[in-house]
Design a protein that fits this description.
By secondary structure, this protein is mainly beta. It has no helices and three strands. The protein has one domain: N-terminal domain of TfIIb. Helix content is about 0%, strand content about 25%. It has a three-stranded antiparallel beta sheet with strand order 1-2-3, with no helix packed on it. A hairpin with a 5-residue loop joins strand 2 and strand 3. The chain is elongated. The mean pLDDT is about 80. Bound molecules: zinc ion (ZN). Zinc ion (ZN) binds next to loops.
């Protein structure tokens, strides 16, 4: 069930994920630049408690 429309969320966009720390739905995407300049990974940051979740840190961003 993967629909790719060429739209990729960027840092600052609201994310549909809940904060794993305080369960707040007020999270936004945060973009992490990797070693490959054409590749970036997305994590989330919580607006309420500022908890950050980095990609590849046990948080499965692929799971919908
Ligand atoms: Zn939070």
């Amino acid at each position: 069930m993967t629909s790719s429309k060429g739209l990729s969320p960027i840092g600052g966009d609201p994310s549909p994920y809940e904060c794993p720390n305080c369960a707040s739905p007020n999270t936004v995407y945060e973009e992490y630049i990797t070693n490959d300049p054409e590749d970036s990974e997305l994590g989330i940051i919580c607006d309420d408690c500022e908890h950050q979740v980095e990609p590849g840190n046990g948080f499965d961003m692929e799971d919908e």
